[in-house]
Amino acid sequence: MTNFTILNRFSTAFRDYNSHLKLVLICTTVSGGGVLGYNAVVGSSEDAVVAATDKKKVVVLGTGWAATNFMKNLNNPKYDVQVVSPRNYFAFTPLLPSVTCGTVEARSIVEPVRNIFPKKNVQVQFSEAECIKIDAENKKVYCRSISKNNLNGKEEFAVDYDILIISVGANVNTFNTPGVVENCHFLKEVEDAEKIRRTVIDCFERASLPDISEEERKRILHFAIVGGGPTGVEFAAALHDFVNGDLVKLYPGIKDLVKITLLEAGNHILSMFDKRITAFAEDKFQREGIDVKTGSMVVKVTDKEICTKELKNGGQITSIPYGMAVWSTGIGTRPFIKDFMAQIGQGNKRALLTDEWLRVEGFNDVYALGDCATINQRKVMEDIAAIFKKADKNNSGTLTVKEFQEVMNDICERYPQVELYLKNKQMSNIADLLNEDNIDVKKQLNIEELKTALSKVDSQMKFLPATAQVASQQGTYLAKCFNRMEDCEENPEGPLRFRGEGRHRFKPFRYKHLGQFAPLGGEKTAAQLPGDWVSIGHSSQWLWYSVYASKQVSWRTRALVVTDWTRRFVFGRDSSRI
């Protein structure tokens, strides 16, 4: 009993330590008590104290990738933060396909937000509620509690803000296809993955009943996945591994009746990847018996059939019986975001438009990050007159190459498509750009020649993908801007204001693509990394394991995920219906 009490006290004390000190304690224990230096500063009376009246109220909507990375990196004590979200946890969404098949448990990829957000310098409050309306004119957001047992009887409340950060993600885009909402599973949330997992087991259990006909068994065991993007492909691969690696041993009598079909409206699956990866994935799926139907547009879904228009066969309508359907075809805007967009004149856009500093267009105190927003990159040709005027310091009406070169760095910083154009054309400097259009670099340029030189760069403008990688980088960027707000007010670090005076306070957000993975099952993964580097096979699978383990938000989830992977290697996937 005494030993148990001592162990319990040690466990409680261990959990109360911050994460860095936990790592030190673990390292000290494993190393056999070797000497390890560590300075743990819990608090200091010399820390800056900011009066409550001087603090700005920041309201953050959402607890996804953008919001979580913003909160993790924010350390400016001049802000009081209130987070509002219908879920009180952060979910590592790239592992949702693994949850659907029991490779990883749902609780292993979630971390309570109250474990993530505590800061000694920043006061953070969390409200478990959903936003239903944004009133930007009066700086209020209206929210509704999702609690079923509201103690004070108030289901709706308003929150005032000085700065609003919208990072609520997006809904699944059904393209208004009849029957999708009623009959298909989605794969956006942890609850979706758990529901899919139960449905897969249900299908096998129903097909095992003695009074089911052979034809009905085939229908029940037909799993249809709509969408050939990364999520749909990864789920199809994970399901194939689950069925052939675990379920066929438990249901030997019906193993030959299982069928997996992947429906894609385009000509290829994984169209955003390198062609080598696309070809390998399609060939691998074909060899393993996964039926890939490209050029198949879903037009209707009933409770037992999916109707598709075969674009390669003149639009012929085909009906496909199924037992479970998963819809994974893109993202759509949340209803209250649509209402807000209509208020601010963006009703015809697919997402909230922001500037390059992530501010919603028309507002200096409203930011939008992640899947709910898109950056409206300004075109060079829209500002060509202002650029010319700013570069022409002596107002001569012409530019020397030297004058143009002096503002070129600011142009590349303000308009990233310029730098991308130079890179794609393998140009090293402004002279190469001018020579492309046969402009003599030895003479002075007039505005028409400048227009000619820069006329093609806007063709390199691209929308950022709706990925966790983009959202996390945006959250980190915005937090760093908030941390340096006062310093950059006095010493701006951004590019020249071509349509104004001085410089921008911060450098605009610049997305850095770090690569992407496509797990293809059978312990094989396709990796596409910067520099046109492509790797497919077992080595890429281990790279996937290491990257996804390192990207977990806490040591707790990191340990749980690695433990789940190890358990799966040793014991296989769990097929219990819980």
TrEMBL record:
SMART domains: EFh. Its main location: mitochondrion. Its cofactor is FAD. Pfam families: EF-hand_1, NDH2_C, Pyr_redox_2. Its EC number is 1.6.5.9. It is a peripheral membrane protein. SUPFAM superfamilies: EF-hand, FAD/NAD(P)-binding domain. Gene3D superfamilies: 3.50.50.100. InterPro entries: EF-hand-dom_pair, EF_Hand_1_Ca_BS, EF_hand_dom, FAD/NAD-bd_sf, FAD/NAD-binding_dom, NDH-2, NDH2-like_C. It comes from the Eukaryota. It is found in: Mitochondrion inner membrane; Peroxisome. It catalyses: a quinone + NADH + H(+) = a quinol + NAD(+); a ubiquinone + NADH + H(+) = a ubiquinol + NAD(+). The keyword Calcium applies. It is an enzyme of class 1 (oxidoreductase). Keywords: Calcium, FAD, Flavoprotein, Membrane, Metal-binding, Mitochondrion, Mitochondrion inner membrane, NAD, NADP, Oxidoreductase, Peroxisome, Transit peptide, Ubiquinone. GO terms for molecular function: calcium ion binding; NADH dehydrogenase (quinone) (non-electrogenic) activity. This is NADH:ubiquinone reductase (non-electrogenic). It comes from Lupinus albus (White lupine).
